[in-house]
Amino acid sequence: MKQIKVLGTGCKNCETTYNLIRLAAEQAGVEIELEKVTDLAEIMGYGVMSTPGVVVDGQLVHAGGLPGPDQVRAWVNG
User: Are 17 and 71 in contact (CB under 8 A)?
Assistant: First the structure.
């Protein structure tokens, strides 16, 4: 099962990214472990300077701004 973390302090883009990933997983019928990370020290530990950040299985795959739908589907299905 994929482990996906959305890194952010709770901004609108962070919430939207979280919901996009959750929805993409539901639509694909894929079970994922989705977690919100709001701890600034943990976020900085990934080297993220602008949020939202997305970590898939321990690998930073996105930082800053909303991800595109194709990106989200690739994270969930990839």
Answer: no
Catalytic amino acids? 11, 14
Say yes or no: domain 2-77 is CATH 3.40.30.10.
yes
Query: Mean pLDDT throughout 43-68?
Result: 96
Residue with tokens 């993409």: 24
Is the pTM higher than 0.85? The answer reads yes
Output b/e per residue, 49-61; b: 16+ Cβ within 10 A.
Answer: eebbbbbbeeeee
Residue type present at position 2: K
| Helical ranges in the chain per DSSP H | 12-28, 40-45, 69-77
Q: How many other C-beta atoms can be found within 10 angstroms of the C-beta atom of residue 64?
A: 12
